Amino acid sequence: MDRRAIVHAFCEECVWVRSLRTHFGELFESSDQRSALLLEVADTFFHDLNLMMIEYILLQQCKLTDPESMGKDKDNLTTNYILALDWSDETRGVLVEANARLMEFREKIVDARRKLIAHLDLRARLNAVALGEVAQAEELAFWEHLQTFADAAHREAIGGPFEIAATMQSGDIPSLVHALKDSVEYQRLVDADPALLVQRYSHDRYRDA
């Protein structure tokens, strides 16, 4: 298969996972005020969404660092598969070092994937075993090493570095948070002046949404 196409596809997967992590950070790791806002608007929903995103990000981090193959005709698009391609000595040295660091991180989270995310291990579930916990610095290092890996592969296979931390489009989490703030403030105004609720109802564009 074409190395260029393989590296391009891998880098796109890196962008996807990094974007999810950016969304998570903007929504849940901003400030105590942000946490209070989410708690006031929809506590259970945002609590569940938080857990869902953590599990999914852990799953994707494991997928990116899975073995290069699971058997005949079962190749995986992972760092280990990329590493198995033909590279110059200089690029291979960078890839080997970055991948070693990525695999160290993987060892800290892979049991969470095996026992609680991809499968539901009976003992882990009944004993409420804490799996997949890492320090903030360790996770930050994961993204830095993944960036180094993607840069090195992209530079030789396609040309130039490749930024995996994609720029977010206008809107997304900031727009959501702005709307949540407005809704909370609107409720405060309605509590003070119930007539506002009648005025709003007559101009409600999303009444049946």
Descriptive account of the structure:
The chain is mostly helical and 209 residues long. The chain contains eight helices and no strands. The chain folds into two domains: 3-167; 169-209, no CATH class. The protein has helices at 3-28, 32-64, 79-83, 89-117, 122-126, 136-157, 172-192, 195-201.
Helix and strand topology:
Layout: H1 3-28, H2 32-64, H3 79-83, H4 89-117, H5 122-126, H6 136-157, H7 172-192, H8 195-201
Helix pairs in contact: 1-2, 1-6, 2-4, 2-7, 4-6
End-to-end C-alpha gap:
47 Å
Outline type: elongated
**Relative strand content:** under 5%
The major β-sheet equals: none
| Poorly predicted runs | none
Average pLDDT, to the nearest integer?
Answer: 90
Which H/E pattern describes the elements? HHHHHHHH
Question: Could you provide a short overview of the structure?
Answer:
The protein is mostly helical. The protein folds into two domains: 165 residues; 41 residues, no CATH class. 71% of the residues lie in helices and 0% in strands.
